[in-house]
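Field reference: sequence -> structure
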Amino acid sequence: MSQPNTNEQKPLSDLMNDPHIVALRYKMIAEPGVRFENPPPIDHEAPSFRLKLENGWLTAEMKDHFGTIEDARKQVDDFLAAWELSASIDQNRKIFAFEYAHADIVDRQPSPEKQKAIRRLQTTFTFSFIADESELAVFAHLPPPPANYSHVEEVNAMWNRYQKSIEGEEPIASMAYFCLSLMENKAGGRSNAATMFGIEKDVLNKLGQLTSAVGDLKTARKGSATSSLRAHTPTEIDWMKNAVRECIRRMGNLHPLSVPAPHPLSMKELPPLS
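Structure field:
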């Protein structure tokens, strides 16, 4: 999700007596190695805006009055970040991002003098996207938006740590412990985290055991007498990756519209440990 950059629109809205943001427009950018091939459009209704994603462009039509681009983007950007993250979790990699392009603005109380100045400042926005020649994955459908989302800042932090761990920049156990402790701190303890995020406590207990009591001299998070000081097995590493990914989804409530509300995540839904 690109960061707010509204410099190109500030002179325009400043010239208006009563600016109103009609819609925000974003470009959907596929990641290198990804191509979307003629996918059908997606329409989505949110409390404060309506979305339409078609031909690589997303339009967010605002339902309420917003006088500045910044205020309008506060309503839309978190949802788009959650959409990007939900798709990333499903594919175990980032596959696209939304890049803010521009806003459609009208003056609800126009004056002739200001309208002349506005016409002189209006800009035509042109975008192009060239697919990476190394593209590997072709998608016929766009990832559906999440039905809900929550804790976007924390969930993004968890996903970034997860990605760095997958890329070898951080030990798996260290990353997994960070995610577990963040959930527990947010909920007020492990039992509360299990209830709040829809994860059976056995899953969180096993994650806690693998991140605190297992690990060799290079990877162990603790060197206490209760630590086994042995390397994690490939099976344990795979289990932690899957568990953390599903915990991120549960904490962020990132379940696609097309998927029924999930039951609590249980051990049987994760890879076997033996």
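Note: The chain has a mean pLDDT of 83.
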